[in-house]
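quick one, 375 residues, struct below
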Amino acid sequence: MKIACFTQFAYGKKLGGSKVLVELREELNRQGHETQVLTPFDFLGETANHKTHALAYAQEIQKFTHDEKANFDVFDVDCAYLQFARRDYATKPLLVSRSVLLTLWLESEIKIPERTTLRSLAGKLLKGRQRRQELQGLFAAMRNSFREADLVNLANTRDKELLVRDGISPEKILVQPYGIDASRRALFDAQPILPENSFRVAFVGTYDERKGRCEFPRFVRALAKSFPQVRVVLLGTYKTELEVKADFPRDLVHHIEVLPAFEPEQLPALLAACTVGIFPSHLEAFGFGVLEMLAAGLPVIAYNSPGPPEMLPLEWLVPRGDWQAMAARVVELLTQEVPEMMRHKQRARELSRRFSWQNIAQQTAHFYEEALQRR
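---
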């Protein structure tokens, strides 16, 4: 097949939204398909912004489906940018709506805690109405996308359940998680699972409200009460070390280590020095950080919110927002005897092996091919 994928993010592997399509593309191409990933910058130039240029990008995608309909079998499009009726796109190629973060959850079922600062209060006062309108517009665009597309590609079963409740036919929904390719898997496997307890707790992901920014200081304080030597290592925060540490009281700062960015091949070694992982995210499509920490042999305690439950056993999940329960579970793990801790670590690595880009690409291609045959 020939597949064109459209994302809202810059091309690369450092942010999860584009990483999905870049790695999926690589595996599909290895399997003999021809896959291309396109971004707003390919159509609108270097100054493209997914908020202010959303309509323009949606129009460019619509035009592309007509101009290139003879050259592609599938158009796989971020769900925010299929804003028109199905009849407005080229008829023959398969039109897929892909969600890399289903923000429809924010409409009624999930509320993400917000930090209360003078700046945030001023922002609400000055731009609150505009932001609500923008969010409602995004919800409407997503709903239209799911209704009009031939197929919907999601990364977790809870997203599917939400869309089915919203009236989308389950027969047109494909749930495909994300994975790790063979070369990257080898880098994780090359790091031995160490029996020693380093009292280093890892988090891989951007540091923001959706991923637990508001809860982090209280969580770290709870850990430090039990283990004065504990270190919480935040990897890939995007925010600078100074910005992250500014959230923490002075007596907690020495418990925090921050690495705002890293090269993907560095991560296995960075995680090898840690004992446990955490993932206090309120909403994910999947949660690459969870999968990578599991691959490093770290048992991961996460919020029981969309995404991580695709990978984690129930006993490694805590109620969304319950930083106290998360701290208690981490304390339990850090007090395990060596044989029990090794079992947890080995289990973590084995859990990660279920998620291979090779298998996921094969299944995705098979699903698309079947849908093309039906059409």
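The chain is about 40% helix and 15% strand.
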